[in-house]
Specification:
about 325 residues, Nucleotidyltransferase, domain 5, five-stranded mixed beta sheet, about 20% strand, globular
């Protein structure tokens, strides 16, 4: 019987799966929709996970009982009770091997730092910051209170700034008309009326518009992007303050659409704040799919010690695979 390790990375908009043999060779990958129970519900998460496991197992021509260990890194696992809520879902999947449930931020951490010791800043659909030392793990709450909220927070911040401009508190810029126009309104008053009366909900899909305007010099967009970047940097400061890191250097993985978009306004604000407050931090943008971090996490759980050969094989192969 073939022995394989399964990694699942489930976010607010997409889910990825990967099967890897015990030597670190990638056997199959698959992708489908969201797996954040807060957005789609627990029953939908179970259906999504069953479907993606079916697809990845069929692609690798293996059965579920050949999976000896697995990690499910899912968005929305922010508290102990979330793990308890989703544990029955994982138990229902028919996996005879060991299974772990973790927040998806830790998948990105292990994808960029195979030993899993360091920090990770996620700025994607939502936001999350986390870190692991040799003795403990810390993560932000994932509820946009006192922490960065990714693209969702970027849109909320831009909306607040546009409202300030409407009230004459801030100077109007292109964003003042572009944001309403993007959702079909030419009159800002009608735009705000629709929001106030709950006929309209603006979401993270407007984040690229704000990013684009910031690069064109729009002052309101620049302020929105800068505020969100600085908050994500402060979150990492807080993580470091709570962890007992040993040594002179701390690694930081940056992941999610805001970090990987190459927006110079966001990057300069985030990197500048980190460098100023945490000069020992070594930053890198994640270049592989976080699902391979889920695999790496499961490998650490399965093996008493993950071999350098396993890490090298998986890391090199992960760089060559893009999962849709």
């Amino acid at each position: 019987m073939t022995k394989v390790i399964l990694g699942i990375d489930g976010g607010g908009t997409k889910t990825h799966a990967a099967l890897v043999d015990l030597n670190g060779n990638i056997l199959a990958t698959a992708g489908n929709g969201a797996a954040n129970w807060e957005r789609i519900g627990v029953a939908a998460v179970e259906k999504s996970l069953n479907e993606i496991i079916d697809v990845v197992c069929a692609s690798a021509q293996i059965s579920r009982d050949e999976i000896v260990d697995s990690t499910f890194a899912l968005a929305g696992i922010d508290w102990q009770e979330d793990e308890e809520l989703l544990a029955p879902v994982v138990n229902s999947l028919g996996l005879t091997g060991k299974c772990q449930l973790i927040n998806d931020s830790f998948a990105a951490l292990f994808a960029g730092i195979p030993e899993g010791i360091g920090c990770v800043s996620i700025a994607g659909t939502g936001g999350k910051s986390a870190g692991r030392s040799a003795t403990q793990s810390i993560q932000t709450m994932g509820m946009e209170l006192g922490e960065g909220g990714g693209a969702g927070q970027l849109v909320d911040t831009a909306l607040d700034l546009v409202a300030r401009a409407h009230h004459g508190i801030a100077q109007k810029s292109e964003l003042y008309s572009a944001l309403p126009r993007a959702v079909g309104f030419t009159d800002p008053v009608l735009f705000f009326t629709a929001i106030a009366r709950e006929r309209l909900h603006v979401d993270e899909s407007l984040a690229p518009l704000i990013f684009d305007l910031s690069l064109k010099g729009d002052l309101l967009a620049i302020e929105a992007v800068t505020r969100v970047a600085l908050q994500h940097a402060r979150d990492i400061e807080g993580i470091v303050n709570q962890l007992d890191f040993v040594g002179d250097e701390i690694e930081l993985i940056r992941a999610g659409g805001l970090h990987t978009a190459g927006n110079s306004i966001f990057d300069k604000a985030f990197e500048g704040a980190i460098t100023s407050s945490l000069p020992q931090m070594k930053m890198q943008v994640l270049e592989v799919s976080p699902v391979f971090g889920s695999v790496m996490h499961a490998a650490h759980h399965y093996f008493s010690s993950v071999s350098p050969e396993f890490i090298a094989t998986l890391t090199q192969a992960a760089k060559e695979i893009e999962i849709s």
